[in-house]
Amino acid sequence: MSEMLSCNLLPDLWQQILQQHWTYLETEESLQKIEERQKLEECLKDFLCLVPHSRKFLLPVTAYVLQKSILQADDSSAYKASIGFESISQYANNLFTKPWRKEYRVIKMYSGFYYHEIQSNLVESEKIFEAMGYKILPNRTLVLDGPICPDQVTNVSRDALAAFVECQILKQIFSGLTAMQVSSNWVDIFNFRSVHTGV
C-alpha cells in the first residue's frame, strides 16, 4: 500500500520541485531566497526518500560522481561531498542568472576555490561541468563557448542540489548511528540507501 501511495505522489512532488526550483532561481538574493531554498530542500528530501536510488537524479553523471566520491575517495564523507555539490549548484545558478559574466564562463581548475571547494571534495567533478556544456582545455581550464543551454544548466543546478540534500540525509543517518554507538561508515550507509527505498 505504501509503495502505491508513493507512486501516486511522485508526479505531483516532481512538479512541485520543478516549480520551487524556478522560484528559487528567480528570487533575488534576500531572506526570501533563503526561505525558497529551504522549501526546495524539503521537497527534494521528500522525493529522495520516496524514489529508488536509480531515480534520485535526472542526470546519470550526478549519481556517478556522488557514488565515486563516497565509495572511492580516500577520505570520503558525505560532509565533503555536500560542500562540492553545494558549490557546483551555486556555479550553475550563477551561470543561469548571469551568463554574460566571464568568471562563470571560464573556470580555472587549479584556482583555490575550485580546488578546495569542489575538486578536493568530489571525484571527477569536471564531468558535471561538462554536462553544463563546459569543455576541458589541456591547461586545466573549463571553458563555456557560445550561449548557455538553460535546460542543461538548470538540470545541473537542481541535480547538484538534490545530491547536496542526499548528503544531508546520509549525514543525519551517520549522526543517528553514532549517537546510538553503532559502528558504521559512509560506504555502508550509502550502500544501504542505494538498495532500500524510503529510508
Automatic annotation (TrEMBL):
Gene3D superfamilies: 1.20.58.2190. Transmembrane segments: none annotated. Pfam families: SPATA2_PUB-like (PF21388). It comes from the Eukaryota. Residues 14-182 form the Spermatogenesis-associated protein 2 PUB-like domain. GO terms for cellular component: cytoplasm. This is Spermatogenesis-associated protein 2 PUB-like domain-containing protein. It comes from Lutzomyia longipalpis. The lineage of its organism: Eukaryota, Metazoa, Ecdysozoa, Arthropoda, Hexapoda.
